Model the fold of this input.
Amino acid sequence: MFHNSNCLIYAKLINLVVILLVVFKNVSGKVVFSMFLYYLCMRYISNFLRGKMLFPDYIFETSWEVCNKVGGIYTVLSTRAKTLQDRMKDHVIFLGPDCWYESQSPYFKQDDNLFADWQQKALSDGLKVKVGRWDIPGEPIAMLVDFREAYAHKDELYGNLWEYYHVDSLHAYGDYDESAMFAYATALVVESFYKFYLCENDKVILHANEWQTGFAALVLQHRMPQIASIFTTHATCIGRSIAGNNKPLYEYLWAYNGDQMASELNMESKHSIEKQTAHYVDCFTTVSDITATECKELLDKPVDLVLPNGFENDFVPKGATFTKKRKAARKRLLDVANALTGDDIQDDALIVSTSGRYEFRNKGIDVFIESMNRLRYDENLKKLVVAFIEVPGWVAGPRQDLVERLNSGKQFDTPLDKPVLTHWLHNMDHDNVLNMLSSLGINNAKGDKVKVILLPCYLTGDDGIMNMSYYDLVLGNDLCVYPSYYEPWGYTPLEAIALRYLVLQPTLLVSVCGQIQRRENIAR
Done:
């Protein structure tokens, strides 16, 4: 993985072993003794590589979710940061997008004294970057990169990416440009830091997460080849698109051509940067055996390593704190349900939820709603069920009628208008969840044994209705359901298990050769 002087040292050590073997065999004729010497030399080399060469001096890790809470990758990076920080002591540096510009990020504490000399040099070179610490356990160094000025170099960047790596940016749309400009600016920041503080004797890694930062890996691969590159895809763009377009993914994975499907589904550019990054970095990894099979089939590149999903569970409250927070979360969830529906829902109700990105089919939101609908007609159901769908939508704002009811502290016996959601949406007529609830006649009428409520916002503690963080609110659940079709075992179920809740997921049966055979329909 590392280059230049380290490889030369390794080669010299191997040559030394061979020379010593020849000399000792000629002198003594003792094959056994020569093999013993070989063993000792190889042990020495192994220890040398492990202690001197394979562990990096610096790690630069970049993701769109560094200091930017969007999804599960934020959880993984932020919870394992303390371990890296303890081991590397400020030699691990996280780089994320500056989405706040002149405002203050809620996840970041700026420190102008960190690398103050370099900050001045970077600014004089036209690089705008905030330096400080990520406000998480371990408080690792983080840099928020302002990438707005990178747009002036967009055409040049895309031309070079095509010339050097055959990355097709002609069909770009949506968030492709934004991601590319962030990653390009990030590469320039890493290059500037390296040239200011480091040299070729330093063992340095850039770890890029997801396609959004693949641009950074390729730019540095060309400009700074002495920096080793790792690319981790947590899911493939084209795999997600196939599944999201109601096409069978796992059953026919072996038959798909990734390039052909990217053209068919208008995903050429995102697929291209992801595929070419996988092919050109020093080390390509993913997070599960399922996704590894997907990479091999759709990106035409087997992964070098599978790094399973995982994180530290230091966000889980202990003992009396857990009990207190669970009680508060249950009360809030039931208060909201009562205020919306005008029903008298008691504490013995079963609270169920699903959560994650708002990908209606991929995350199995359709399956979850259908399951709740069937449960409404189950004669064996003895408990009242309150089901929350916690996915971020296009929120217009918290419902003021609901806020007034909650603040009054009174018990109401009439429902609010549209008692199936907590926040108004900009796209009320086109929201998939609301449309499916309406088509099934789920309106949370009084007497219904199953209530379904859409909570369409990021739970950061200031949404205006729940006003609790996701980790605090999920403590109120009795059951978490994640019926995902795509990425069937991600971070959200792991979080729920860490919080000690029963988790229900679809079963993916995998044969010995790793081909997925079927998906179990949990709505059954």
Remarks:
- The chain has 17 helices and 18 strands.
- Residues 79 and 312 are 5 Å apart (CA to CA).
- The radius of gyration is 27 Å.
